Amino acid sequence: MWQKVSSLDRRWIYLGVAICAALPLILEFILPIPATPPVKRLFDTIDNMPAGHFILLSMDFTPSTMPELLPMAYAIAQHALSRGIKVGFMTLAPAGPGMIEIVLEDIRKAYPDRKYGEDYVNLGFKPGYSAVILGIGEDLHKVFPRDAYGTPLSELPLMRKIHNYKHIELVISLSGAAYPDIWLLYANARYGQAIATGATAVMAPLYYAYLATGQFVGMLGGLKGAAEYAELVRRAGYMRIPKVQHRVGVQMSSQSFVHIYIVLLIIVGNIAFFFIRRQRGR
Amino acid sequence: MRRRVPLAIAFIAGVVMLIQFFSPHPTLRVTYETMLNWLRIISAFTFVLGIVSFMRVHFTKVTHKRAGWGYSIVAILGFVIMTSLGFIYGTGAGTPFDKMYEYVYAPLGATVFSLLAFYLASASFRAFRARNIDATILLVVAIIIMLGRVPVGSFIRWGKFSLPELAEWIMAYPNMAAQRGLLIGIALGAICMSLKIILGIERSYLGRGE
């Protein structure tokens, strides 16, 4: 019997994953999501920042990691814009400009009182990530002479005051690759720029070393980090795009079910393993 | 000569970039900014190389009808369609390029990445076994992290401590210590490799031809 369990057809396992992932999405229930210290640190940094300061939100990711990282971009952008903090959107990933557009499409509708070029700006993509990060430290206008829509930066009131890292309060790199490391290596180590990150759950464990040293002022790890941040933003009354917060909460419930299912699979697999080993020992 | 010139360029560029880091001299500042400009231009050209290589690989596959050549047609069509839409209508919000990105490319990318959950579940069931003490520790920690990193974990408590707190402690201390060791090792390796390239000891980037 245990041999049968041990060699269970993988299609049954896949069906279980599909059911566990889909049920919470269909029933739309949300479990409570308490904030962890790395998320709270980033929230507090932006929450204590005076209005009018400028942050750079570098959306260094592509659609493959979108489910985890896009909700982070929504939550951070809403937090900053609601508090009157100016936001510069950019990306180091070649397929990243589309991600910025998805967020900006909703931001334009939710924040009619915030003007493009005065409260936020889209710098788009530039190739050569290390040269771009180092170049911003010298003169941002040389790296990005125009915004993503072709308007010279000198014509945008917001960007007339922003020239290098001295004028940027915080850089937040959202990525499923090594871009946050590169921001740290070049912008933090060389120019002393404050950096925070939003990373996929796979990448997040790597960054605890930088959190401990204070090189990252905060971190959102995976979908859970996004959900925690969105919840903090909602509680503080800054949430203007509630569909995103609702969606990420439901997705976390879905992830809960899949994790429980995988844990059960591991336990059943090990019970079968022990019984088979005992039978072979006899 | 074909080897000496690139070696000399690598040596000069490496030494200049190394010195400028420690000196605020105006000449070195200008040199530094110029080299950053070169780097950005060269990076842009790598895209051209990437496109040429991509097209060559897939065209060869289609013309020789190698295994999976049908997928190569889809890859070429995808490239041609997206590039054409971008050139004809632009890439701004609401353009056909933007629609294709948002409603075709983005869901496809996310779907492929999501398939990992299915493979992970199957692999965990078959391979995650408590065969010895080390594997058992790994298994227990994995279960704590898996449950501690989702909301349902906050319902599991031992007195004052909850499972997410235990998971966070594992990430912030044992995990961080191991990651720090790895990072220091990687950094030392990168420094050694950089010095070897600057000094011309490491020459694999030149290719094999004389």
Structural summary, described in words:
The complex is a heterodimer of chains A (282) and B (210). By secondary structure, chain A is an alpha/beta fold. In chain A, 54% of the residues lie in helices and 13% in strands. Chain A has a six-stranded parallel sheet, sandwiched between helices. Chain B is mostly helical. Helix content of chain B is 77%, strand content 2%. The longest helix of chain B has 38 residues, at 26-63. Chain B is extended, with a radius of gyration of 26 Å. The chains are: A alpha/beta (282), B mainly alpha (210).
Task: Give a topology summary.
The complex is a heterodimer of chains A (282) and B (210).
Chain A: H1 2-6, H2 10-27, H3 37-47, E1 54-60, H4 66-82, E2 86-91, H5 97-110, E3 120-125, H6 129-143, E4 170-175, H7 179-191, E5 195-199, H8 208-213, E6 216-221, H9 222-235, H10 242-281
Parallel strand pairs in A: 1-2, 1-4, 2-3, 4-5, 5-6
Chain B: H1 4-22, H2 26-63, H3 69-89, H4 96-127, H5 133-148, E1 157-158, E2 161-162, H6 163-198
Antiparallel strand pairs in B: 1-2
Can you give the helix content of chain B as a percent range?
over 70%
Strand order of the largest sheet of chain B: 1-2
Shape-level CATH architecture of the largest domain in chain A: 3-Layer(aba) Sandwich
When the domains of chain A are counted, the total is 2
Structural class of chain A: alpha/beta
Give the amount of beta strand of chain B, in percent.
under 5%
Pick out the low-confidence regions of chain B.
Answer: none
Query: Whole-Å distance between the termini of chain B?
Result: 9 Å
Helix count from the secondary structure assignment of chain B: 6
Spatial gap, N to C terminus of chain A: 16 Å
Our count of domains of chain B comes out at 3
Oligomer: heterodimer
Shape of chain A: elongated
Number of strands of chain A: 6
State Rg of chain B.
26 Å
Strand order of the largest sheet of chain A: 3-2-1-4-5-6
